[in-house]
Design goal:
Protein name: Protease
Order of helices and strands: HHHHHHHHEHHEEEEEHEHEHHHHHH
Keywords: Membrane, Transmembrane, Transmembrane helix
Strand order of the largest sheet: 5-4-1-8
Shape: globular
Number of strands: 8
Helix content: 55-70%
Transmembrane segments: 20-39, 51-70, 77-94, 100-120, 132-150
Number of helices: 18
Radius of gyration: 23 Å
Mean pLDDT: 78
Organism: Starkeya nomas
Largest sheet: 4 strands, antiparallel
Strand content: 5-15%
Structural class: alpha+beta
Distance between the termini: 52 Å
Number of domains: 2
C-alpha cells in the first residue's frame, strides 16, 4: 500500500520529506504496538469506531450518487456502496453483536487469502514461493484463532487486525523513507530496493526527469485495452469468477486467458505476445502456470492497436486516462522493450501493460503538499480497493480481469479522487439533469 502511494506521489516530491516520513512510520508502528497492548481494556476503540463511521458515510454517498444517476445503469456503484456500508457496521464496535460479524469476515478473509497463497506458491512457483507458503500458513493460523474466539475474543478482532495493519504499514513507511535518502533527483522511486519484486519493476530503475507529472494533456489520452477471457473465447464456459479473472474454455476445449494492452497514441503501444502461439490445451495448461525460467519463450510486441484489431477483434473494455506522465512511460518502455522474453505468469501481456501503466502514473498526484496528499490517499476507500486488487495479482499473477479492475480503481483515485462527497453528489445531480434534458430532446 505504501509503495503504491509513493509511486503516485513521485520521488521528487517525497525525497525532501524523508526524515518526517521516517518519524511518521515510527509513530505508526508505536501506535500499532499500543493498540496491541490496549486490547484488554479497549481505550483506543475510538480509532476503529471512526474508521467504521467513515466507511459507512462513504457507502451512503456511493448509494446516493447511484440512485441519482439511475440504479439500473450503475449497479457497480450500488454494490460498492453497499459493501462500504456493511464494512462500516462490521468495523465499528457495536456492543450488542459482540463483533461476531466482523470476526467471521476477518477470519474468512485470512483463511481464503492463506489458501490462495499456498495454492499460488505450489502452482506458480515464483522466486519467493517459500515465503508465500509460510505467509499462507500464518494466515490460516490467524483465521483459526479469530474464528475460534480464543485466546482472542471476537470483540477484539477489528482492533487486533488494525494493529497488525498499522505495524506493517509503519514498518514499510519507515523502510521506504530511509531508502529515499539515496534517491537521486529525477530518479524513479521504482529504482529503490523495495520495488525489486517481479510485480513491480525488478529494481531496474529508470533515470528519467519527472517532468509533466500530474499534468493533463488536452487531446491526448492513455488507454488500457482489455480483451476479457469471456469476450475472447469462442463460446467460453466455466465458473463466472474463473472466467472473469483467470481463463475461459471454449467449445473446442481451448483455454483463452484474454489479453491486455496499453496505448499512448500515436506511437507507443505495449502489447506483449509469445512469438509462437502457446498451445493452451486444457490438459497442458497447469504446467504452463509455473513461472520459472523453463517456461520462458521468445516473445514479440505488437506494433499498434489497429493492427491487433485487424488480426483478431476489438477490445471489449477500455479505461482512458487524461492525467499521466508520458516522459516516465517512454523512459520505461525504452528499457523494457529491449527484452522480448515471454512467460505466461511472470512476464505476460497483463503484467507488461500494468508495469507500463504504473510508470505512467509516477508522480501523477504530486501537488506540492506530499504529506497531505499521502494522508488523503490512505483514507480513500478506492485506494484500498486498488491495493486489494494489486495484492491479488502479486499473490498469483496479473490477468486481464485483474488488470481491468486495477485500471478502473486507479482511474477513480487519480482522476476523480479530489472530489469531495458533496461535490460527488452535486456532479451526480448535474449528470441526472443533463440526461433528463437529453431524453426530452429526443422525444421532441
Amino acid at each position: 500500500m505504501i509503495r503504491l502511494a509513493f509511486l503516485l506521489l513521485g520521488g521528487d516530491a517525497l525525497r525532501p520529506q524523508w526524515r518526517l516520513l521516517a518519524i511518521v512510520g515510527a509513530i505508526t508502528c508505536l501506535l500499532g504496538l499500543l493498540m496491541l497492548a490496549d486490547l484488554s481494556d479497549g481505550k483506543l476503540s475510538v480509532v476503529t469506531d471512526t474508521l467504521g463511521i467513515l466507511l459507512a458515510l462513504h457507502g451512503l454517498v456511493e448509494l446516493a450518487a447511484a440512485m441519482l444517476l439511475g440504479v439500473r445503469t450503475h449497479l457497480r456503484a450500488v454494490a460498492r456502496g453497499l459493501a462500504f456500508l456493511i464494512a462500516g457496521f462490521l468495523v465499528a464496535d457495536i456492543p450488542w453483536d459482540n463483533n461476531i460479524g466482523s470476526a467471521t469476515l476477518f477470519g474468512a478473509a485470512f483463511a481464503i487469502d492463506g489458501v490462495l497463497r499456498i495454492a499460488s506458491a505450489a502452482v506458480v512457483r515464483n522466486p519467493r514461493w517459500r515465503q508465500g507458503l509460510a505467509a499462507g500458513l500464518v494466515e490460516i493460523t490467524l483465521a483459526i484463532v479469530i474464528l475460534a474466539g480464543h485466546p482472542l475474543p471476537h470483540r477484539l478482532t477489528v482492533p487486533f487486525c488494525l494493529a497488525l495493519l498499522l505495524l506493517s504499514s509503519g514498518y514499510t513507511l519507515f523502510q521506504l523513507a530511509m531508502q529515499l535518502r539515496a534517491l537521486g533527483p529525477g530518479r524513479s522511486v521504482t529504482s529503490l530496493p523495495f520495488y525489486a519484486s517481479r510485480n513491480w519493476h525488478g529494481g531496474g530503475g529508470h533515470g528519467y526527469e519527472n517532468r509533466g507529472a500530474g499534468a493533463e494533456f488536452p487531446g491526448q489520452t492513455l488507454m488500457l485495452h482489455v480483451w476479457t477471457a469471456t469476450g475472447s473465447a469462442d463460446g467460453g464456459h466455466g465458473p463466472i469468477v474463473v472466467r472473469r479473472y483467470v481463463a475461459a474454455v471454449d467449445r473446442h476445449g481451448v483455454v483463452s486467458t484474454g489479453h491486455a494492452a496499453l496505448e499512448l497514441p500515436p506511437d507507443l503501444y505495449v502489447s506483449h505476445y509469445p512469438a509462437v502461439e502457446i498451445d493452451r490445451d486444457s490438459d497442458d495448461f497447469r504446467h504452463l502456470l509455473d513461472s520459472r525460467t523453463q517456461n520462458d519463450v521468445a516473445g514479440r510486441f505488437q506494433p499498434s492497436y489497429a493492427e491487433e484489431v485487424a488480426g483478431w477483434c476489438p477490445a471489449d473494455q477500455t479505461v482512458t486516462f487524461t492525467r499521466f506522465n508520458p516522459a516516465a512511460l517512454r523512459a520505461f518502455w525504452r528499457e523494457y522493450s529491449q527484452d522480448t522474453t515471454y512467460n505466461l505468469t511472470a512476464r505476460n501481456c497483463s503484467s507488461s501493460s500494468i508495469l507500463a501503466l504504473d510508470a505512467a502514473m509516477e508522480g501523477v498526484l504530486r501537488d506540492g503538499k506530499p504529506l497531505r496528499r499521502l494522508l488523503k490517499l490512505l483514507v480513500d476507500p478506492h485506494f484500498w480497493l486498488l491495493r486489494l486488487v494489486r495484492g491479488r495479482a502479486e499473490l498469483m499473477t496479473w490477468t486481464p480481469g485483474l488488470a481491468l479492475d486495477y485500471a478502473r480503481f486507479l482511474h477513480e483515485v487519480t482522476e476523480r479522487g479530489d472530489r469531495r462527497w458533496r461535490q460527488r453528489l452535486q456532479d451526480a445531480w448535474r449528470e441526472r439533469h443533463i440526461a433528463a434534458r437529453a431524453r426530452i430532446g429526443e422525444r421532441a
